[in-house]
Amino acid sequence: MRAALLYGPQDLRVEEIPDPGPHDPARIVVEVEAATTCGTDVKMWRHGHRVLPPYPCAFGHEMAGIRADTGERVLVSDSVACGACPTCRAGRSQICRRPTWILGGFAERIAAPEAALHRIPDGLPAAAAAMAEPLAAAVHAVDRGSEARDVGILGGGPMGLMLAALLIGRGRSVTLADPHAERRAQAAQLGADTAAGLSRHELVFEAVGRPEAWQAAVAAAAPGGVVVLVGGCPSGSEVTLDAGPLHYDELDLRGAFHHAPAEVDRALAALADVVVPWEMLLGPTISLGQLPAALAAREGPAKKWVIDPRLQE
Ligand SMILES: [Zn+2]
Ligand SMILES: [Zn+2]
After folding, report:
1. pTM for this prediction
2. What range defines the domain where residue 6 resides?
3. How far is the centre of ligand 2, averaged over its atoms, from the C-alpha of 276 (Å)?
């Protein structure tokens, strides 16, 4: 089958590789219909990533397709928790200490444990279903927040816009800040107020993933507020925070990482019900061969490329 393999930073090649299955009885083969790109893919392509196996490796972690054994349409989640470690036993499988990562959506087929497969609601296209992976993380992040009505979101990429859509769907008043006018226009279309920066909100979501943004998110919280850090800064990143408000303003600073299986199903339902208008986030559909150029593309409006591995160049 054809697959996009990473050979090293910024070295992506489309090659013919052995079919993934059904050699392993513990895994089910899924014919990929659509895989969407995200900021994590761009990071993996540019610099590598701690969850990548040794090079050359397959990647792509937002993928949907058809089960080869039953013909059922499924979203393939990008991880399965171990179920046995202390965090899993505490009911927090999204921060499992020994997860199995399932990467390789940028290929014609992928083999995944059955626990990673989620049925796609009828009528939801594969490209929209693939977005359930990041959306499940947004669902989880919203749960990590508070019930405050006044919400600020820092960052208008796909994650920031998904958070905005979910929160507006729950009747919250959302202000989204992003330096890009195109992204502010997308947020306004969802019904959010927009700004170049945030000031004093009861609940603040950081959806950028840079130390400066973490700092700005804490500075944007109102006294007694809650700050949820959704964008990842790699371990070892140095973040300079004004610590005073954590004490004197009793700020709650919380991380939100990844998602649990039930959140993937909630995300699929939110896509099917168009709580999140997924068409806004869909970019062009391209072939595997066009993927390197797509990953290198400059930022514009928040759009995800859709890779259809069945397309020839
Ligand atoms: Zn992603
Ligand atoms: Zn675990």
Report:
1. 0.96
2. 2-135+259-307
3. 30
